[in-house]
From TrEMBL:
SUPFAM superfamilies: Glyoxalase/Bleomycin resistance protein/Dihydroxybiphenyl dioxygenase. PROSITE patterns: VOC (PS51819). This is Putative dioxygenase of extradiol dioxygenase family protein. Residues 5-131 form the VOC domain. It holds the Pfam family Glyoxalase.
Amino acid sequence: MQNFTPFHLAFPILDIEETRRFYGDLLGCDIGRSTDKWIDFNFFGHQLSAHVKPEEVGRAKTNEVDGDAVPVRHFGAILEWEQWHQLAEKLKGAGIRFIIEPHIRFKGQVGEQATMFFLDPAGNALEFKSFQDPSQIFAK
């Protein structure tokens, strides 16, 4: 992944402290600036801004991808292979309820990847994935 340029994503949450614990303590994201209405995180090199906006929080619809019901509205990060496996074990140990359990998608095909989906405390869907061969990230 050459020429890495961080992205910025803002999303709705229910509670600052609950979100701080989830992204900061559980996922290990460094915490940036915050107020009682929003909080920034270093999300694997990207800037996330979580805004308290309960009326905008809701569960996304799904679409089938390789036999899984994938939440259409989701975000996440592509991790190194070992880092993905370490996070999967940490989440299992923390009792996280997965929407889609950690597994290998597109096995033996172009774009083969490790993937897992789970919700943050506000119900936002997150996907973490990894490729043993990073050249497969944008493969057709």
